[in-house]
Amino acid sequence: MVIANHVSVSRRTFLDQATDRLRKAGIEEARKEARLLIEDVADISIAHQLAFPDILLSDKQLAALDEALAMREARIPLSQIVGKASFYGQTFATTKDTLTPRPESELLVDAVIEYTRGLESVSLLDAFTGTGAVGISAARCLHEAGIEVILTMTDNSWHALEIAGKNACRLIPAVNWHLEHVDIWPSTYRLYDVITSNPPYVATDEIMTLMPEVSRSEPFSALDGGQDGLDFYRRLSRETGRYLSDNGVLLIEIGASQEEEVVRLFLDRGAWREVDRKKDLAGHTRVLAFCKVA
């Protein structure tokens, strides 16, 4: 369906019709999504939309918006339609081969800043980096605070690493960073002051029950945490100690209902002590912090 057959259409008219179509497609906050679509596809800020709702869209804008709207109706994520997503105040390139950065992952960045306060230099490993959003955002903040940063980002997807590299070139050009295509751990052994990790944590059988934007469009390997969703946490609890400095901290993101299971995995090994839990806006614990037992 093409809105108004490409006759003259105002921003207000497109917004109303797009909102109705997105609502019928089952998309929550349909009007907000329609405004974001206009902002990202037609390059019209929300402030300008609100101030001047009756300006007509150009034929070029309308054609692009019609195409994007049809994709969003099909439940393709907005980040994949426009090729970008906002995270920690910056814009990150995204593709169908990368997990879209989530707001709750910003808690990992907050934690890095908190646990490195007062240090002059930091070696940071961001495992399962995807777009690089967590590692790049943390390195950018530390660099701006005058802390010398060495950032290593690892992922098992060449496609994700390509996007992470592009994001790093644009957002942290003055930081010493590099990428490694590995399972989890860098091929060159060293100790890190901070290790961040947002591993796949959805149970395999639950992936297809997630919203279509996730289950149909996001990379399966970035979601699949095994039969119970805990496979990579088991590995992290066993393997991370070899790569973490004695005074270092491991910061991991978890699913909204995994708090006690993941904590138990780490503490039962006797090699870790829990130092912090951070909650998202819904009150769910989403980040755990561990240090090695002395």
What can be said about this structure in brief?
The protein is of the alpha/beta class and 294 residues long. The protein is 38% helix and 21% strand.
Please describe what this structure looks like.
There is one protein chain. This protein has helices at 11-24, 30-42, 46-51, 59-73, 78-82, 106-115, 133-144, 158-171, 212-215, 231-239, 259-267; strands at 84-87, 90-93, 121-127, 148-155, 176-181, 192-197, 244-253, 272-279, 285-292. With 294 residues, the protein is α/β, with parallel strands linked by helices. It folds into two domains: 3-74, Ubiquitin-associated (UBA) domain (Helicase, Ruva Protein, domain 3); 84-292, Vaccinia Virus protein VP39 (Rossmann fold, 3-Layer(aba) Sandwich). Strands 5-4-3-6-7-9-8 form a seven-stranded mixed sheet, sandwiched between helices. A two-stranded antiparallel sheet has the order 1-2. Helix 2 crosses helix 4 and helix 7 (133-144) packs parallel to helix 8. It is globular.
